[in-house]
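Tokens as discussed.
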């Protein structure tokens, strides 16, 4: 099977921060977990800024603020409990520090970069997965991120996804299907869920649930880096609390 990145990316040598073995793992499986990648003091800054945004303080005009479909259809909820996701925070100086944080950038450079690379942040997101209402709307169907992106080549796109607090199966951790990044981009559509589906939560058509999957449980600061063709999703949040994560492609 081919190596991702063709003749441009090198997998058989150590990187600046990653070992040869870590790089080969990513090339083979399509993801790599780095524990304690982002320190608590940075996560606390992002959490404080998220609360300010939920209160309407200095919100950039091009930032997208989203609610879960179950919240949008329920009685009025305000503040942090009303917002389940913000996107496009590239003009927010605090949140965008995540995309500039060396502990994240250096890993991405080792995975998809060369000594001449000029990395760009193309998509930014802070997820505040709400407690599920019982209709399982807090799930994210199995999908491939490349479905959302008009730019290529895929092998030179990488997502950094950092847990801002404990993320486990109970509160809806990520689930990945290792090795699927070497497949093709599959057709996507809205899943036919009885409880409704959040806007743009597209899933793979005719997805086979018997495919072997891995649950990515993480502590605060742990970061998973993954390829945009890797099949992944997340489960429902069956706890009483929100589950926060921050990410950038």
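Sequence:
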């Amino acid at each position: 099977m081919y190596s991702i990145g063709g003749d441009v990316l090198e997998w058989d040598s150590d990187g600046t921060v990653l070992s040869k073995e870590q790089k080969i793992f990513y090339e083979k499986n399509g993801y790599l977990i780095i524990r304690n990648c982002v320190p608590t003091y940075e996560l606390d800054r992002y959490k404080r800024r998220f609360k300010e945004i939920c209160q309407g303080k200095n919100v950039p005009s091009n930032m997208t603020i989203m609610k879960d479909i179950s919240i949008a259809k329920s009685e009025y909820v305000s503040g942090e409990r009303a917002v389940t996701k913000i996107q496009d925070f590239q003009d927010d100086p605090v949140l965008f520090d995540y995309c500039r944080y060396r502990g994240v950038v250096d890993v991405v450079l080792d995975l998809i970069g060369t000594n001449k690379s000029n990395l760009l942040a193309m998509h930014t997101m802070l997820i505040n997965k709400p407690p599920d209402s019982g209709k399982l709307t807090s799930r994210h169907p199995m999908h491939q991120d490349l479905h959302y992106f008009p730019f290529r080549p895929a092998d030179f796109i990488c997502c950094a996804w950092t847990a801002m607090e404990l993320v486990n199966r109970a509160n809806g951790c990520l689930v990945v299907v290792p090795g699927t990044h070497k497949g093709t981009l599959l057709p996507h559509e809205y899943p036919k869920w009885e409880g409704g589906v959040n806007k743009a939560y597209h899933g793979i058509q005719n997805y086979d649930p018997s495919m072997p999957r891995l649950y990515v449980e993480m502590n605060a600061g742990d970061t998973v880096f993954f390829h945009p063709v890797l099949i992944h999703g997340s489960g429902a949040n069956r706890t009483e609390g929100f589950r926060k994560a921050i990410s950038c492609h």
